[in-house]
Amino acid sequence: MQRIYEPESLLEAQMLMGMLDSEGVTVHLVGRDLIGAMGDLPMQGLLGLAVADDQADYARQLIAAYNAAQPLVGDEPESVPGTLIC
């Protein structure tokens, strides 16, 4: 197993896990149980996505594509151009 990404929040982790799972990548969320102790632990580095060694490069490519995605023209609200509101 390789830790390939540190999501900023549990929400981001869950979204990425769903995306990776839909692409056939088995992913594990490391540190989910530590979220309740955030007052006592440093916030950075608690969560991590881990995948099998043979899927690590593919998973990194998928996450990089996800993070580089831009909204389609016309999908963003007029009040906040260039931002996709989900």
Biggest sheet overview? 3 strands, antiparallel
CATH class: Alpha Beta
The helical percent reads: 25-40%
Query: Element order, helices and strands?
Result: EHEEH
**What's the rounded overall pLDDT mean?**
81
CATH architecture: 2-Layer Sandwich
How would you describe the overall organization of this protein?
This protein is α+β, with helices and mostly antiparallel strands and 86 residues long. The chain has one domain (2-68): Hypothetical protein rpa1041 (Alpha-Beta Plaits), CATH 3.30.70. The protein contains 2 helices and 3 strands, in the order E-H-E-E-H. It has helices at residues 10-22, 56-68; strands at residues 2-5, 27-30, 48-51. Strands 1-3-2 form a 3-stranded antiparallel beta sheet, covered by helices on one side. The longest helix has 13 residues, at 10-22. The chain is globular. The N and C termini lie far apart (32 Å). The relative contact order is 0.21. The mean pLDDT is 81.
